[in-house]
Specification:
- The protein has 15 helices and 2 strands.
- By secondary structure, it is an all-alpha fold.
- The protein has a single domain, classed as Up-down Bundle (Amino acid/polyamine transporter I), CATH 1.20.1740.10.
- A hairpin with a 3-residue loop joins strand 1 and strand 2.
- Helix 3 crosses helix 10, helix 5 packs antiparallel against helix 6 and helix 6 packs antiparallel against helix 13.
């Protein structure tokens, strides 16, 4: 089995990793998270996300423990190390297929958003091809270049996000979140379950990057902090959607955060700046898609025993585009898939399998250590 270091020679530090986790958590979710939450939990949607953040700390704990067992290996590599060659390859392929579906779904979401709100006369296929092509350029340049680019754009993303929230404060209507706990705890718990798979369980993809971070101890702390800060950004976005638009409008809109931008009006001349929200979403989703495609191509190269992941980029691009076009009929079908199937699927691939991997790996490590101590000294 080829070691990941042969396929990726780049290194990043814990600070870059921290920013990467924040952007990954926000990407693809900041525009759509409020819709599903408002549909399930009504005016209490803003309560469900903090609960999900607390639950997700346990997932990060499992991922960090896996990294502790095999710090120099990717998730794909220690599947084979723990389960053996063939079972490990099958388990790794299940993991990679999950992120293949995620990449296709995100690409479809990009196409739907642009062709319904911005480039309404443009064929959706062209939007997806151009976006995927730019993503694969980033993948081809490698992990270091991806992280440096994230660092360049991250301050702008934060600044525009804060500016949007600041300008929306005059539009807040506190009665939109009343009555608090009006539907009881059951819808809130259901809403928390709904968004576990989008985006928190998807952070399992980060396990393909962690071997290339220099400071392992700081990396584990950065993983926790990055997820929490990204989750807080999503929480604030959901809260503003409810406070400004109300739960009914939020639940009916496919992209409620984008609609928030239309509500901004300063002095009658500074208004309709929804393009800022679109800019934030486009860049976060671009970096998330690029990280997913990087992990997908790297992991598949490791499963197949290739010397370079770059030769897989064109075949994967063709498959991702094809799957994105033909697997989801329209935006309604795609959101229905997210609401009903994505969370249980995510729990299986990104929680149950890593937990099983951790348990078997820990047992095998302890067994190996005990066998070493029992060897007779000559």
């Amino acid at each position: 089995m080829l070691e990941g270091i042969m396929l990726e020679k780049g290194k990043i530090n814990a600070g870059e990793f921290f920013i990467l986790v924040i952007v990954f958590t926000m990407g693809g979710t900041i525009l759509v998270a409020a819709t599903g939450l408002a549909e399930v939990t009504k005016q209490d949607a803003w309560i469900a996300d903090p609960l999900t953040i607390l639950i997700s700390l346990f997932f990060i704990f499992i991922y960090n423990q896996l990294v502790t067992l095999y710090p120099s290996m990717t998730y794909v590599e220690y599947n084979e190390k723990i389960f053996g060659k063939w079972i490990g390859k099958i388990a790794a392929l299940l993991y990679l297929f999950y992120f293949f579906i995620l990449s296709s779904g995100m690409l479809r979401e990009i196409g739907d958003f642009f062709t319904t709100h911005i480039l309404v006369e443009t064929p959706i296929q062209m939007v997806m091809i151009i976006f995927l092509f730019t993503s694969l350029i980033g993948v081809r340049l490698g992990l270091e270049v991806i992280c440096r680019t994230v660092l360049i754009f991250f301050p702008w993303i934060v600044m525009m996000l804060l500016m949007s929230f600041l300008f929306l404060i005059p539009e807040i209507k506190l009665e939109n979140i009343q009555p608090i706990f009006g539907e009881g705890l059951k819808p809130i718990i259901k809403g928390s379950y709904h968004i576990l798979g989008l985006p928190y369980l998807e952070l399992a993809m980060i396990l393909m990057i962690m071997p290339y971070v220099t400071d392992k101890t700081a990396t584990k702390k950065a993983f926790y902090r990055g997820m929490v800060i990204g989750g807080i950004a999503l929480f604030i976005t959901v809260a503003f959607c409810i406070l400004v638009l109300g739960s009914d409008i939020t639940a009916r809109q496919a992209y409620p955060s984008y609609i928030l931008g239309k509500k901004i009006s300063i002095g009658g001349f500074f208004e309709r700046i929804e393009a800022i929200v679109a800019f934030i979403w486009v860049f976060t989703v671009y970096f998330k898609l690029t990280i997913i495609n990087y992990g997908l191509s790297l992991g598949l190269a490791q499963v197949l025993g290739l010397k370079s992941y770059k030769i897989l980029l064109f075949p994967l691009a063709f498959l991702i585009i094809t799957f994105a076009i033909f697997s989801f009929r329209d935006i309604v079908h795609f959101h229905d898939f997210l609401a009903k199937a994505w969370t249980p699927y995510s729990l299986t691939i990104c929680f149950i399998l890593p937990l099983l991997l951790l348990m078997v790996g820990t047992i095998r490590k302890k067994s190996s250590a005990s066998n070493v101590t029992k060897l007779p000294v000559r």
